[in-house]
Design a protein that fits this description.
By secondary structure, this protein is of the alpha/beta class. It contains 2 helices and 8 strands; from the N terminus they run βαββββαβββ. Helices cover 17% and strands 34% of the residues. The strands form 2 sheets. It has a 4-stranded mixed β-sheet, covered by helices on one side. The protein has a 4-stranded mixed β-sheet with strand order 5-8-7-6, with helices on one face. It is globular.
Amino acid sequence: MKLLEIHIEATDMKLSVEFYKSVLDYEKVMEFNDGKQAMFVMKDGCCFGIWEKEYLGLFDGRAAEHIHYAFQITPGDYQHIKEKLESLQVDISEHEWPDGQKSIYFFDPDGHQGEFMTKDWLGNTSL
């Protein structure tokens, strides 16, 4: 089993979609429902979705108003991601885990806390 989708809310869909286009490494972006939903399809097939604030999906489902999420990156990608966020003038915080792996934390335009981390919780460090 793997996580297939997660969705966040955005007050300004255009701003959020452009922000994540600049930050994420994705395969494609799909938009639905007159631009009220966007899905970033990642290379592993998982989708990171953005829904317009208060939009209701199937069966009255809602996206998260405020959430923390993390993307796994390779240790070799760490500096590139850090420089990309800094070039976009995104405030970042760095954390080193006890095993030496690292994380970069940031907030998106709607206050969701994102993280890029060089490890996973099973102890694997390669993608």
